[in-house]
Structure prediction request, 206 residues.
Amino acid sequence: MRAVRTLALTAVGVAASGCPYQPVIDEPCAYDPTVGNCFEANRTFNFDDTRVDAIDLASLPQATSACRDPVRGTVTRVVDGDTFDVLVDGASATERIRLIGVDTPETYVETGYPHCYGADAKLFTEELTGRRVALSFDRGCDDGNMRTLAYVWLGPRENDSWQRQLLRRGYAHELVIAPNDLLETTYLGDEALAMAQMRGQWLECR
Prediction:
């Protein structure tokens, strides 16, 4: 079993973004087979590659006129909190995936400083490196920047959505762009709950 990394405080107690890390207990959520992973901000995500490989891809949420059929693959590199590379099963080259419906703080800007909580969001998503993921799609697959737009799943249940994990833990905010609006209502609700509970960036980046 892979060791779970704990996000530790630096000597001065702040992340590279200038914001304090949330303390994380070095113990994963207990997996609930009815709803999936938990959204507890102080618990690590419960990863299980066999759970991903057992997903019935046809059962994943996707647009009626989706631009592509669902696929499975392995994350090879994380760019930031909402973007990473995946080697899809059977493919000879990786493709860059941009999460649909969410936006994490930037870790790189041409002028000025990285955005608050960008480093934290990237660290959280870096836990996907080497992991199996399932991808489903909406009506638009291309973001115009050579990235594939996708919903990312770590299991068959609603709480296994990586987008929802980012939103509920306060690492991202909702950013739905037409025509990819299948889960807009869900994401808005997740963002509202994180804000109300003062999680992640909603506490540290005011």
The longest strand covers residues 71-80. The beta strands are 25-28, 43-44, 71-80, 83-88, 95-99, 101-103, 132-136, 148-153, 173-175.
